[in-house]
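[Q] Does anyone have a clean structure-token version of this?
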Amino acid sequence: IPHRTSFIPSEVFDSRTHYLSEADKSNANLAYSVSQHAEETIKEADLILSGLVYLLESADLHDQQRIKGLITAYKLRAQQLSGIYVFDSSGRWLHYTSAPPSPTTSSADQEYFQHHLNSVSRDIEVSSPMQSRSTGEWVLPISRRLNGTHGEFAGVVLATIRISYFNAFYK
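[A] Here you go.
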């Protein structure tokens, strides 16, 4: 019996080591999956914004019906989005899928707006989660800068992703 018990600690140790190794692999796979999902969700919003920037910079920014139809169609195709918005250079809401709380609402004070106002970068901006002024739900703002015909700041296009979309996926 003493000889037999001398092997038990080694077997237990080997089993524990194997279990921990498998747990590490599972955690790495889960982290990769979560990261991929978030990246793909943001990438889809960015594709919408990139197309919208291209169209707005090459067309009449005030063609209300055409732009309203376009952003409504985009939002319907991407169920994770809470809204799509276009703001002019002063933060005034030009086009939107969810109405502003009042006609005088400005987004000039928002983190994403200030970023694009103060940067000439055409890159996507992923801002901190915030409570939407138009819907009241928590969202992740994804935005791009709009330029005028001479490269000047003309406004911002914004897509907001529902935080509840991520919560539902990660449960």
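[Q] Thanks! Anything notable?
[A] The mean pLDDT is 87.
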